[in-house]
Amino acid sequence: MSHPDLPPTVKAMLASEGHRVHHHLWHFVRSEENWNGLSQADKDSLTADGWAAPRFNQEPGSGLDFLGMHRQMIHMTNTALAAAGDSNWPNVTGWNPIPFEDNNSDWPVPQWQAAPPPWADAALWQNFTDLADQARSDARVNEMKSIAAIFRDSGRLSAMSLDELGIQMEWSIHGWMHMRWSGAPANDAFSSDPDNDWLFLPWSSHVSSTFWKLHGWIDERIADWEAATGQVADLSNAWAGPPAPASMSASGTTDPAFPKTCMRKPSVPSRAWTSPAIRT
Hints:
The chain has 10 helices and no strands. Helix 6 (122-136) packs across helix 9. The chain is mostly helical. The protein has helices at 8-15, 17-29, 32-36, 40-48, 62-84, 122-136, 138-150, 154-158, 162-180, 209-229. The chain is 47% helix and 0% strand. The radius of gyration is 18 Å and the shape is globular.
């Protein structure tokens, strides 16, 4: 029997368009390829609304951005979970241990969908399928077991900056977990229905209960880093998008300042965490 889903009130909040827009755009604009592919008008619109990232992913400082923005999301979701009062979800806690086996009773690996959904052409879906297959392979699982151990090893952590830890986790085990536990997508990849909780894309991934287990695990590595280095994590300069956007509030309403362009619902989904780079 799988672990119970998020409380309905929390899932509905996360599924609101405001939350989806914020998570999608934050990942989208941090990709140099995505940003450079925009028209100047779209760049100007996003910049005016505070969506010009101060750095791209894998650049110095981006690891702090990754850890800090998702920690803000966890704090927000913990507030909503406390209000929901569901004993199955008192707060966000990470997997301990990561359920590496395919048929885990609580967090089984879902079956991948062979046929492309309506929004994806055959080439794009084959690319996604290849990535999902790699994430499910025994070789990649064994590789991630080793990488997970590195991120809990005090000797290895003591030699890393917090920024380096964030970059390495984002582009290794984080992307792998998103792809491994992705199942069948919605027929409309950019629907705001709560059932659209596909872990593969930033528009929908945070609506999935699995998202909070994997990001809980990542966030808990910050405490391991603090213990290993004797330092207190400073995420005060992490970039989380525009200051206090409505999409990150408990109400989940859509900020009218968000650009009403194809950026919000692009015809080809952002491949925000499908980079093959794994840094150890």
